[in-house]
Amino acid sequence: MDKNEEISKYAKLQYSSSTNLEKRQNLWTLGDNKVQLGTWIFHHLNLQEGEHVLELGCGKGMMWCENKDFLPNSIALTLTDFSLGMVSETQKNVDKVGISAEIYQMDAQNLVIPDNSMDLVVGCHMLYHVPNIPKSLSEIQRVLKPHGRFISTTTSVSHIQEIRDLLLQFDLDVTLKTKYFSPYHCEDAPGFLTPVFPLVEYFEYNNNIVLKDSVVLLPYIDSMFPLEKYPKYPEIRPQIVSKLAEIFQEQGKFHVTGKIGLFIAFKSDSVICK
Ligand SMILES: C[S@@+](CC[C@H](N)C(=O)[O-])C[C@H]1O[C@@H](n2cnc3c(N)ncnc32)[C@H](O)[C@@H]1O
Question: 10-14, 150-154, 164-168, 260-264: lowest mean pLDDT where?
């Protein structure tokens, strides 16, 4: 299997349903930032009346459900994800809160969307799962209106560094990083965005955690290793459990760095504010 297939296969296994995503999101509720990440991102969307918005890799569609009271009335939402499981969860969630949206299964590398039709394209924590990032960015550029913008979030290389260091001791993280992800950390993103978009702005969100036990940390770690890709994980897991017990006994805590970047990339450098 070549690298692109590996990246795609891993993302498909990870996101056949929202279970893994939820385990990871639970951890961040324990951070020191009082503003939730979803609220912070939504604020940066700066939605205007009448805008047409496309989300790629929308997950469970929570960005829109959690902020439904702040959606301009006349907004047109198209929510997409390449996982059928996620698409059906999004449909259920938007129906529950009564938001009107078109929802489709779609690969961010092949957008079935007309040229020049979107004011805003959003891709949160998803481009690192896309094998061919330049192809996806050229699709985003194509579907944006002349003064449209693309908002992309991703993690810094220092994000969850402590968890990566722990896993490295068991030879786990190296494979994960080099084999199953595209290189789209905050530090890499400008290299992809600036050749395509003439104006790119950057914002940062920090949310650090000090854990006193491994109750939420272990499910987070488990979620990173789908059995199909890591058949040896159940053998290694008890060693991780003991290592964590040792850390908590000796140091009384485990620090986790949370560092997220948000990029606003404009299709034109002469941005017209409505
Ligand atoms: C980490 S989750 C983020 C979900 C959501 N955007 C959020 O921030 O909560 C990544 C999402 O990207 C989707 N995804 C992965 N590869 C994709 C692709 N090539 N095209 C579209 N969606 C993709 C996954 O199915 C998953 O729902």
Answer: 10-14
Q: Determine the residue of 78, 113, 126 to mutate for testing ligand 1's pocket, defined as the one with the most ligand atoms within 8 A of the Cβ atom.
A: 126
Distance of alpha carbon 15 from alpha carbon 21, whole angstroms: 7
Q: For 84-133, what is each residue's pLDDT tens digit?
A: 999 999 999 999 999 999 999 999 999 999 999 999 999 999 999 999 99
Contacts of 86 (CB under 8 A, 6+ apart): 15, 17, 18, 58, 59, 60
Where do the structural domains in the chain lie, given as residue ranges?
3-156+180-207+259-266
The number of residues making up the chain comes to 274
pLDDT, mean of residues 196-203: 98
Ligand 1: atom nearest CA of 12 is 25
Cβ of 186 closer than 6 Å to ligand 1, yes or no, is no
- Calculate what percentage of the chain has a pLDDT beyond 90: 84
Instruction: Return d(Cα 113, Cα 95) in angstroms, integer.
Output: 23
Q: Ligand 1 centre from 109 Cα, in Å?
A: 12
Instruction: Give the span between the Cα atoms of 143 and 6, in whole angstroms.
Output: 28
* 60 CA distance to ligand 1 middle (Å): 9
Mutate to test the pocket of ligand 1, among 82, 110, 176 (most ligand atoms within 8 A of CB): 82
User: Yes or no: is domain 3-156+180-207+259-266 CATH 3.40.50.150?
Assistant: yes
